[in-house]
Amino acid sequence: MSEQGISQEFRGEALEHVFVPTAGEARATVVVVPTVMGVTDLERGFARRLNEGGYHAFIADLFGKAFRDAPRDTMFGEMGRLKGDREALRDRMLAVVESARQQQGVDASRIAAIGFCFGGLCVLDLARSGADVAGVASFHGLFDPPGLAPRPIKAKVAAYHGWDDPMVPPDAVVALGKELTEAGCDWQIHAYGHTGHGFTNPKAHEIGIEGVEYQAAAARRSWASLELFLDELFG
């Protein structure tokens, strides 16, 4: 797996994405939006799995080079900053996708995005923007709406959710389904029982919050569902 650092400036902030191309011609390109901790080996592992499926992977750096490997408290502060201005966060996501489109070997018409935890919220906001991407998939993402004027959603949306997630109660799941329906979206939500937040991350428990932990069955099932979703998007 070869990595390429991709520099981008967004409103005065220096970002450095990681482009991980697959060998040969790709089926499509998948933008991977990380958890609150930014670009880590977790996302590189997801990129490797996407490569094995024939996809280019583009790991988004939303926080900036200065925050690579920063302490958890610092990263939670940065997440709060980005989440505090959802319009700017939407524009940041659109800029990231545009950067992915510009990479060598990327078919600009065959792009999807997947996100984890905070990244799950980000890809949902990408879909909410009306962006011209094939689909987005949120893994244990946050569902709270951005409070912006609604737009028709072009992308297909999949959300993989732990039913016992303390950050996303059942009412929020119902609200997301209603929101996506009203936006004319082709959507699906998969809920996994006895599963909390962060279920794809073997180190999720290190955060020290009750209800945040790895769940192997949900991790396996959600990735299998993602593969079917990508097959549907790209054939």
From the alpha carbons, calculate the radius of gyration and give it in angstroms.
Answer: 16 Å
Number of strands: 8
Q: Element order, helices and strands?
A: EEEHEHHEHEEHEH
- The coarse overall form would be globular
- Main sheet strand line-up: 1-2-4-3-5-6-7-8
Distance between the termini: 24 Å
Approximate strand percentage: 15-25%
For the sheet with most strands, the description reads:
8 strands, mixed
Q: Ranges with pLDDT <50 over ≥5 residues? A: none
Helix content: 25-40%
Mean pLDDT: 97
Query: What would you call the structural class?
Result: alpha/beta
Q: Helical element count? A: 6
Compile the SSE list and pairings:
Layout: E1 4-10, E2 13-20, E3 28-33, H1 41-52, E4 55-59, H2 72-83, H3 86-101, E5 111-116, H4 118-128, E6 135-139, E7 156-162, H5 170-182, E8 187-192, H6 216-234
Parallel strand pairs: 3-4, 3-5, 5-6, 6-7, 7-8
Antiparallel strand pairs: 1-2, 2-4
Helix pairs in contact: 3-4
Describe the protein:
The structure is a single chain. This protein is of the alpha/beta class. The chain contains six helices and eight strands; from the N terminus they run E-E-E-H-E-H-H-E-H-E-E-H-E-H. It has helices at 41-52, 72-83, 86-101, 118-128, 170-182, 216-234, and strands at residues 4-10, 13-20, 28-33, 55-59, 111-116, 135-139, 156-162, 187-192. Strands 1-2-4-3-5-6-7-8 form an eight-stranded mixed sheet, with helices on both faces. Helix 3 packs across helix 4. The protein is globular and about 40 Å long. The two termini are 24 Å apart.
